[in-house]
Amino acid sequence: MPHLPTLILQIVVILIMARGVGFIFRRIHQPQVVGEMVAGILIGPSLLGWLAPHVSARLFPPESLGFLNALSQIGVLAFMFVVGLEINPRLMRGRGHTAVVISHSSIVFPFFLGSFLALYLYPRLSDASVSFTGFALFLGIAMSITAFPVLARILLERGLMRHPVGVLAIACAAVDDVTAWCILAAVVLLVRSSDQAFPLWVTVAGSAAFASFMWFVMRPALGWLERVFHSRGRMTQNLLALILLLVFASAYVTEYLGIHALFGAFLLGAIMPRDPPFVKALTERTEDLVVVLFLPIFFAFTGLRMTIGVANGAQMWLYCGLIIVVAIAGKLGGSMIAARFTGLSWRESGAIGILMNTRGLIQLVVLNIGLDIGVISPALFSMMVIMALVTTFMTTPLLAWIYPRRNFEREVIALEKNGNAA
Amino acid sequence: MKVMLLYLVLVGLPILGVSMIVKAGGRIVPPISVGGIWRLAAVQDSSCRGMPFPDTLVMTVAQSGPELIVHLNARARPLIGSVDGPVIQVSDGDLRVRGSLGPDTSMHEIKGTISGLPCKDGTTAGFTGRRTHSAAAARAH
Prior knowledge:
The complex is a heterodimer of chains A (422) and B (141). With 422 residues, chain A is mostly helical. Chain A has helices spanning 4-27, 32-42, 48-51, 53-59, 65-86, 96-125, 132-143, 148-157, 164-192, 200-221, 223-232, 237-257, 261-270, 276-304, 313-341, 346-356, 360-372, 378-393, 395-402, 405-421. Chain B has an 8-stranded antiparallel β-barrel. In chain B, a hairpin with a 2-residue loop joins strand 5 and strand 6. Chain B is elongated, with a radius of gyration of 22 Å.
């Protein structure tokens, strides 16, 4: 049984820190979520544990972390469902080819650079329990992630959703999300194949059968939920309970098959009906508790797993710098070059690159999977978390620099005028 | 047609590069794996008699390449060190642990010495131990 007072105290500290640091970050024009991610690190061993090891050990004793982990996992499951839910295939309409080329380049280019970096980092940050193939492929995909939800919020906050660059970026991020999670599932399958209950072919065939079932059987069947929603006129508790049951059932199947529970939750979100009032009602009912309570717990748990600065400081920071440079060159550079080749101007291409370089909390989810399955070491995990923070933090100021608000507002007005005239 | 060509160049070439990297990386030799949970027991003929060595000393090793962060039982401060071949050495001030990993290739056994705090007169205590959980299992544990 969890020691309830300790758990309550932990949640209180986490919420205060998350809201407090989030507020400060909003004041410096950063998304609240970036502040919450930083808050998670501040209460981990990297700061609190370093400044006051006894306070840290008393507040977060190792035996209590299992309960915190369980809470954060449930929260991330619900969050991944919402991420899947927010992906709208209509965004692709009319720009499918361009979005696919930019998106796939923005995955493959950092994937290549990440794998290349693995040649250097493997003997320095990994060990013989991990194969080079698993290490390189995971590092590659971890470099390739774009945080669709954070990107959507940045675009909304800056009013860029009305601009073609913003619309193209969100379409690319949607393709990116689906593709990256498919590749990640394959990489996780490969890494975990040695300690699976089933032979690899059973897991692969089972996953394919499950995905087909979800797409061809479950997706049409889910239309019934939409009809019930409209007949009742609101998202009833029974309907919400049924949807949550489906989320957990789907998560259970993918975990049982040996990929990861998060894929099941994401998949169910991605195949839900796209009727806007239904999606809006469902998102509103699930998102608030997830964003306000569970995600800060997840960030705190992530922060508690970080060990940077504990061992061999200078050398580790050097590796960390290298990872950040490669991640930015791969994602920002890859997307920018691909966008330029598809006919956008340098400024628009730069904006696409900056936006696609936003990794945010999706990166943290991926990294936690990597640490759980043992493919990345604690130090590499810490460095990648810092990389995720840096790349997310730099998005807003870089975007403001390359695309000042007055410029894109002028462009939006001109585009809208042309549209009206036409 | 132009989009297809672009796709082939921008996506196909890096994928080819990744496959070459994976092939080349197969020859790299990483440090041996020592991460996970080890249970240590004192050796009877230890030179540090009467020391407060608990019946089962639990050593949790977090490994990042050759760098190690080791927690002994519930001690708040970790011991820092490295693995060099089959030998691990970690320390924190006076407390030092040195161990050689087992003769078998699985490296699940260790024998070595602890010196420092448990032995007030500066002598060392011998120990033997076994790895009970791998690094990934230890995280789940």
